[in-house]
Amino acid sequence: MRTVAADTLLSHWENGRGRTPAARALDLLVAVSRDASSDEPPWSVWGRDPGPWTVGHRDAALLSLRASTLGPTLDAVAACPACGEPAELELDAADLVERAEGPVATPLTVRAGGHVVRCHVPTAADLAAVTSTGPESVDDLFTTCVESATTAGRTVTAKDLPLRVRAAVESALEQAGADAETTLSLSCPGCDHRWVAALDPAAFVCAELDREAFALAREVRALAMTYGWSERDILAMRPSRRRLYLEADR
Ligand SMILES: [Zn+2]
Question: Which position among 120, 154, 241, 243 has the lowest Cβ density within 10 Å, counted as fewest Cβ atoms?
């Protein structure tokens, strides 16, 4: 997997305000894909456009991108649900990637309650398109995943499907998209309580890259003030070279 280039990192922060992590994650993958060649994995396997990738593929690509840009170890903190003690975690991106990898999704046909429904598991583009939050976001995502529905030769919209038909479609999508959630098995160092927590790689990686963008902005500011170089020239340097010049100024 390629790394996130310095100027991509800054535009990711700049364009990200007011947008959901799912939308930002897709933008980031599109930006990185643009520089990659078609015979490079994962593009060679999953396709050049990350929009139709499943959530499992999207998250695997994000975590690989994170590993190649910032290193393979992710630091996270989770509060123990039993005693409230914060547990510090070191996660290996490769372990999470392995769990997130699954087969590429194909459209499904679900027959239930006299209805025939064509649908697909949520893709990176589906998630990016959902801008609402709360219960209506579940409805929005469901509507996006239903491609067509008919009963007795008549077309039905996703919103008008009877509840039991909707439940059958949701259960089929859940089974087909078993790779969609990244979960962690955790144990509390204080009270030994064990629990399973969900990790949203899109939110996690976006937050980390935002912190990284700030650190980079500080470097650009320091180098520009010291040496009078332009932002463009500073961003074109390798990170090790930027750090060398910063050290030389101390
Ligand atoms: Zn505990």
Answer: 154
| 101 has a pLDDT exceeding 70 | no
- Give the DSSP letter string of 178-237: TTS-EEEEEE-TTT--EEEEEE-HHHHHHHHHHHHHHHHHHHHHHHHHHH---HHHHHHS
Report how far ligand 1's centroid is from the alpha carbon of 78 (Å): 10
- Considering its fold, how many domains does the chain have in total? 2
Distance between Cα 91 and ligand 1 center (Å): 19
Q: In the predicted model, is pLDDT for residue 133 greater than 80?
A: no
Q: How far is the CA of 116 from the centre of ligand 1 (A)?
A: 48
Residue 56 lies in a domain: yes
What share of the chain in percent tops pLDDT 70? 96
Alpha-carbon gap, residue 180 to 60, rounded angstroms: 10
- Inside any domain, residue 211: yes
CA of residue 198 to ligand 1 center, whole Å: 17
My answer on whether 85 and 190 are in the same domain is yes
Does one domain contain both 22 and 88? yes
Q: pLDDT at residue 172 above 80?
A: yes
Which domain covers residue 114, as residue numbers? 108-176
**What is the pLDDT averaged over residues 142-170?**
95
What's the whole-model pTM score?
0.86
